[in-house]
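Human: Here is a favour to ask of a fellow structure person. Comparing notes only helps if you start from a blank page. Give me a protein, with the fold worked out from its sequence. Please set it down just below, with no commentary around it:

Assistant:
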Amino acid sequence: MASIKHVAITGGTHGNELTGVHLLKHWRQKPQEVARSSFVTEMHLANPKANAQNRRYIDQDLNRQFKLADLNNHELCGYEQNRAKSLNALLGPKEDPRVDFVIDLHTTTANMGMSLIFNTDDPLVVGMAFYVQQKMPHATLFFDPADRLEDNFLTSLGRHNGFLIEVGPIPQGLLRADVYNETKTAVLHCLDYLEAYNLGTVPDLPERREGYRFIRKVQLPENELGEITAMLHPALQDQDYQPIAPGDPFFMTLDGETLPYDGDGVVYGAFINEAAYYDAHVGLSLMEKIQIERKPG
């Protein structure tokens, strides 16, 4: 496999997630921290206008605008849609990217700790996930496979796709030292892994590790007017990556009635009560626990 030559670190894809924004500021002052001998590391503030207004986005969620068909659709001309096209010109083009790998920095209001999110089974990316988790055993692997050209995340602009680091809980528009330091540590491990990959010095890694695969998002209950009529049940709040069985408390109506989970089989929650998803009345994501395999490559 070809070596990695260009790595992009992106922050502020969501303008009110400040950890990545301020890490970029720090690394621009001290670029030696993210410099490695075998590749060039570049840094990009992804959504400057939203960041200046301390908002997640101006018109659309930027991290849903990178599907190839959307990048090539010039009728899509909202701020974030145009920003995605600019980033594609800078890092891509998606069909034949200039940048080999993208590390995108995010935070969540949900109690997800350190989550390593990757949308490909590329052995390079899976190996990075295993390597970082080996260094940070409390990290959770979040696997959501997608075809790179169809993938709508910013990370999909990389030739080998990329890696989304998601840390929480933290409110929107806030800096917290522990979240900042966790994110910084994870990024440096990612860069060390890519350096080792280029130099042929990657340590032995397991063939498989436990993780979670996205199933679907769950809407909050609504009435006929589209108004929210229930919230996440207190027993479910902050229980990210914990099992949810049929009959377990799931929602609580505004008058206090418990609504149980009525699905089939045990699932696991993530992004539980994520504030950023309230614009779409999404309460959480459901996951399945899986064994993630690292294919030879």
Remarks:
- The chain has a mean pLDDT of 97.
- The longest helix spans residues 177-199.
- The domain at 211-293 is CATH 2.20.25.160 (N-terminal domain of TfIIb).
- The chain has two domains: 6-205, 211-293.
